[in-house]
## 1
Amino acid sequence: MRFVFAILLFISFSIAAQEKAGVDKINAILTEYKNDVQLKPAIVSFCVLNAKTGDQLIENNSKLAMTPASTLKIITTASALGMLGAGYRYETKLMVDGIFDSVTGILNGNLIIKGSGDPTLNSEYFKKKDDTSELVDEWANALKLKGVKQITGRIIADNTCFDNNVPGNWIWSDMGNYFGAPPNGLSYNDNKIKLYFKTGAKTGDSTKVVKQVPEVPGLVFNNKITTGGKDDNAYVYGAPGQKERLMTGTIPANKSAYEVEIAMPDPAWYCMYALDKALLKAGVSTTGMLETAKESMKQEMQVLHSHKSPALSSIVYQTNLHSNNLFAETLLKTIALKKTGYGSIYSAIDIVLNYWKGRGVDVEGFFMSDGSGLSRSNGISTFQQATILSKIYRDNSMYKTFNASLPVAGKSGSLASLCKGTFAENNMRAKSGYITRARGYAGYVKTKKGTELSFSVLFNNYNCSPSEAKLKIEKFLEALVEL
């Protein structure tokens, strides 16, 4: 009996010694940070908790409100899972505002596309690579099978389930680009357009747009993009609804079809335009009159076709794996839509904060301006992020789905190149975040002794390149497995 006790005591001391060694290693890294001239103007914050107990292991500046960038998506996606459920599906309906005569095939009245906020309509993230057909073709064929031959009225896009506003603190240089495509009550095609450019042979040569996919009528490009550099350094300016796009910056030389993605000005309008074209192609006669609803259409209209999205679990997976801003913003507004009947971003933020407050999280100093982390006015502490991650870990209804959505170190998503060849590879799952002068990671890691930790590490206002900041943080992440 004494022998067994001695073994247990030895193991206990060994674990404690290992944990102390891990703490010492991280403290040594922190000293490096403090002596790093490139981090002199920066705030370095981190918090590491035992995920199962919530006990804090080590921290630095963990109660300061930091700009989280895309690590904020862990809050949005977890909130959606917690309040909507992993099985939640959006439903988009094709409805009749009038009378449909199934004998003659004439729809006397308007065809309504009733949006539900579904961000996956015709999304490249939910299509097979060899699938070249559009979702509206499926809709048109479904209506034809129902016997529709002619529509005498208008096609109306009803996107009024959302406020359709851009988050108020997004900056002008983001909004016209694909990553700044705002959510819509009737999103379509990931709310973006792919432009293909022909570039010159030398730096400074002009460029030319040779193709756009999809083709959006009436879109005007003020193209000031020139040839230069090795990467996509093109920026597009334009607000939602604006037909003109100012394009500046540089793209590489000697390209015949260089791809640049931009935000679609009016996804709801394009959705009904594309459906009108698809109906004509399917042999259904239309008037070509298109209209965007000014107020919500009545719900009791006849439904001719209903389209359901993939399950929320799949949308959360794509959101976190690809750091999809559109999906994150849509999930945030959907929370408000389901709780209040209207997808207001302001209501959604209040609901999210109250949700976590109700789960025992101190939300003092948590400033939420959007759901994706694109806004620089977001503020959250690493202690709050690590605490929320610990709450999720202990939630059997949420953790498995949420954890599966996080990129894996050395394997997938934005963590594919992170911690390669170390124990952290394949043992760390986290959401990365990056906007100008803000970089970080938040997630889970299994230590060498098998303990699951929840952690958040954020750098703000560093004086080095984003790739150099990543390397500095990576050293910290690799050390976490020693705790």
Note: The chain has a mean pLDDT of 94.
## 2
Amino acid sequence: MNRIFPPAGTAMNRVEISLEGVESPSWLDGVSPFVLAVLDKLEKCNWDLSLLLCDNGYIRSLNKQYRSLDEPTDVLSFTLGETGGDRYQSGDIVISLDMLAENAVYFKVSPDEELRRLIIHGILHLGGMDHVSNDSEEPMLRLQERLLQELSHLSIITQEQR
């Protein structure tokens, strides 16, 4: 199942969402508007990106193949960075819904906050940012948390959908 928002041919940012190994969550329709809001906040224009929501098994296989780490992780970003015409093919973000749930419990945050954090994190990587550690003083992670705060009024997973 692939969803593209907004429809192809629209001269703005676009996001395609796919699923692998997970059922379609009830909150899926809230993902694209949030991704587009992050891109707008970062002043990205004519970006195309894909977001894959998956389970731990799938992300573990990607993590092993591309990072030589035989373990699941929460988010992976695969930068394309290709320009085709007036469109920028930024790349792919992969998020494990299993790890998202585990992180929310571990960090004592809502699943909505953790999902928004992982999306922002993936987008920042696609935009060329990186971090050496998970220290909260890392510039990328500081920007991530600032964006999370600035966009806190935009929920993806509502209380009823948890």
Note: Helices lie at 31-41, 56-67, 97-107, 111-126, 139-150.
